[in-house]
Amino acid sequence: MNKIFSIAAVLIVSLLFSCGNKYKLELNTPKKISIDQPLNITVKEKNNNPIDSIQYFINGKVISNNESIDISDYKLGKQSVSATAFYQDEQRTLNNTIYFLAKNPPTIYNYEIINEYPHDKNAFTQGFEFYNGFFYESTGNYGKSSLRKVDIKSGEILQKIDIDKQYFAEGLTIFNNKIYQLTWKKNKGFVYDLETFKLEKTFNYYQSKEGWGLTHDNEKMIKSDGTERMWFLNSETLKEEGFIEAYTNKRKAELLNELEYVNGKIYANVWQKNAILIINPLTGAMEGVVDLKGLQSKAGQTGDDNVLNGIAYDKENDRLFVTGKKWSKVFEIKLVKK
Question: How far apart are CA 29 and CA 10, in angstroms?
Fold first, then answer.
């Protein structure tokens, strides 16, 4: 009797399972799409079985219409698309990943050298800032990291503190009379008094991968972590409150490093490249690429390690400065469309 009962139970379970398996659902989206194009999302049932209803989502938010969706106001980069199908008192959720791309290719720029200034050729530049007529610089490497105030014309180091050898110093920015400095892999940043360089407090970053570049837009800090992402940090709590991802009309821009905020755009170095990317802080669209080939050799350096990695902007006089790791010079440049 037990044997008969067991066989019957197996048959019932198999029958129920096979009924559910009659539905073969597939969520259809493009893999990549430009934000100037309408997005269409559909769910297909391969066996033509009826579906009662479908609810669609983008990044967890319900969308009322799954066809010809206007995505022009979305940030670029990786998006999560899902659909929940309801049928025969059952429901199933399907997930896809889609990448939103910029509408236009970036504008290409060359440069003109306006002025040249001396720079410490032993400085492994990780962060670079112009403030009130001086350069402020963060240098890296374990046991050699520092924070500096530098005279522009002479290159003389006017003020300096060494960072504890356990830290590899990275990007810096100045905001509200404080200096903010990142470290590479310790998930820790420092806040100093602008005048005395006295350490006032530390802060941690949790969501962003590492500490690379740092700037601000007069409201929030903007931080790179070595990926395509740039994180927005609350200027008081210094906690990550969101991010953008840098994309062209074809692909993502990875290895974003030292940052500077210039006239409403983010200027970003790329690790091991002698170039600057110009990025829209609202969408992540890469709107420009500045080709700075030639400056590295003029600064007495070669190779992938000692490349461009310093951007500073004098807003009052509209001057753009660039330097690099162990470069002997700082260049004031003017961008010229190619």
Answer: 38
Query: For the whole model, what pTM was predicted?
Result: 0.89
Q: Is pLDDT above 50 for 16?
A: no
Q: Where in the chain is the domain with CATH 2.120.10.30?
A: 107-337
Within the chain, which residue ranges are assigned CATH 2.60.40.10?
Answer: 23-101
- CATH of region 107-337: 2.120.10.30
Q: What tokens appear for 298 in the block?
A: 């003029």
Which one, of 143, 152, 145, lies nearest residue 124 by Cα? 145
* Average pLDDT value for residue range 24-52: 93
pLDDT tier at 65, thresholds 50, 70, 90 = confident
Whose tokens are 């003029």? That residue is 298
Q: Which of 173, 35, 24, 19 is nearest to 98 (CA)?
A: 35
Q: Which amino acid is at 325?
A: K
81 neighbors 95 (Cβ within 8 angstroms): yes
Strands 169-175 and 178-183 turn out to be: antiparallel
> Which of these, 219, 139, 126, lies nearest to 175 by C-alpha position?
219
pLDDT computed for residue 21 by the predictor: 60
Digit-coded pLDDT (tens) for 279-328: 999 999 999 999 999 999 999 998 888 999 999 999 999 999 999 999 99
Tell me which H or E stretch contains 21. helix 2-21
- Summarize pLDDT for 234-282 with one digit per residue, the tens: 999 999 999 999 999 999 999 999 999 999 999 999 999 999 999 999 9
Q: Which residues pair with 118 in a beta bridge?
A: 329
CA–CA separation, 282 and 208 (whole Å): 18
Tell me: domain 23-101, CATH 3.40.50.2000, correct?
no
